[in-house]
Amino acid sequence: MSTTFQLDTSTSRANPTPSPMKRLTVPKIRARKQNGKVDEPIVMLTAYTARQAQLLDEHCDILLVGDSLGQVIYGLPSTVPVTMDMMANHAAAVVRGSYHSVVVVDMPFGAYESSPQQAFESAARLLKESGAAAVKLEGGEAMAKTVAFLSERGIPVMGHVGLTPQAVNVLGGYAARGRSDTESEKILGDARALDDAGAFAVVVEGVVERIAVAVTEALSCPVIGIGASSRCDGQVLVTEDMLGMFERVPRFVKKYDDIAALIEKRVREYAGEVRSRSFPGAGQTYQPR
Ligand code: KIV
Fold first, then answer.
1. Which structural domain range is residue 164 located in?
2. pLDDT beyond 50 at 111
3. Which among 45, 137, 226 is the best mutation to test ligand 1's pocket, defined by most ligand atoms within 8 Å of the CB?
4. Strands 42-46, 62-65: parallel, antiparallel or unpaired by DSSP?
5. Does the pTM of the predicted model rise above 0.70?
6. Cβ(226) – ligand 1 distance below 6 Å
7. Residue 18: which CATH number?
8. Disulfide-capable partner of 249 in 191, 199, 214, 253 (CB 3.0 to 4.6 Å)?
9. What percent of the chain is modeled with pLDDT above 90?
């Protein structure tokens, strides 16, 4: 397990780590898909803190500093109020806590949509302040020009189509997408546009399975599914969701554990011991030598 707190991008010489120069790179992730297929699915999870990154790093190919941190960390009602400062600070922590995975940081709502120039300034700031390797942004065809603009200027971009949470006020909720022919054609067209524009990977979220498979087969770059299909080129989940931190999660989440219950149980125990004065005990107090 990694114990480094050093900043180590794939090109860093100044900050040695337990595995110098071993961080995966964006081109390596992109090259995992050859002739329309990946040999092994790409593993991606969200991470928001240095310690979380340390625990996830060796098992993942990509750590996503998702703007889902708005809800998961800050208790916001959606991703819409998430700020650039939040993304930059959490991304820097995740980079410091990892040395193997590619760190991708979400561009928050309002930081990239108005023009490719605005997107470049925001993305450059995020990469400079955090050491992350790439940004992710939501939207399809409408964002293709921006994806090309950034990619051509040294900023790798991961796209995100289907259910795009930043558009919750337009979509009217978080229901699965692609149930009608028009909607499914739009999702496929959006994904293709991002691929053509140079996105190194595309997340497809909350779509009916046949669309996820069609997108995966159509794109030359890797397609990472969430609420999509096991036939995608990789999978991503919000780590807190899959660990069972929340009672209510989207239907597509598999809960691998119930850490909310564990925390509740242990905190109840602690509170009881504090109130009964059985904590701290002899092992946790200092006595004269
Ligand atoms: O913000 C996020 O966590 C995401 C993933 C769930 C894809 O965008």
1. 4-242
2. yes
3. 226
4. parallel
5. yes
6. yes
7. 3.20.20.60
8. 253
9. 91
Q: Which of 36-40, 174-178, 242-246 has the lowest mean pLDDT?
A: 174-178
Higher-confidence position of 139 and 1: 139
Tokens linked to 3: 């114990």
Q: Which atom of ligand 1 is nearest to the CA of 203?
A: 7
| CA–centroid distance, residue 272 to ligand 1 (Å) | 37
Q: How many domains does the chain have?
A: 1
CA distances from 96 to 101, 187, 227, 236 (A): 11, 35, 29, 21
Residue 203 beta carbon below 6 angstroms from any ligand 1 atom: yes
**Residue having the nearest C-alpha atom to atom 2 of ligand 1:** 66
**Site to substitute for ligand 1 among 112, 174, 205, most atoms within 8 A of C-beta:** 205
- Structural domain contains residue 260: no
67: Cβ below 6 Å to ligand 1? yes
Tell me if 46 is assigned to some domain.
Answer: yes
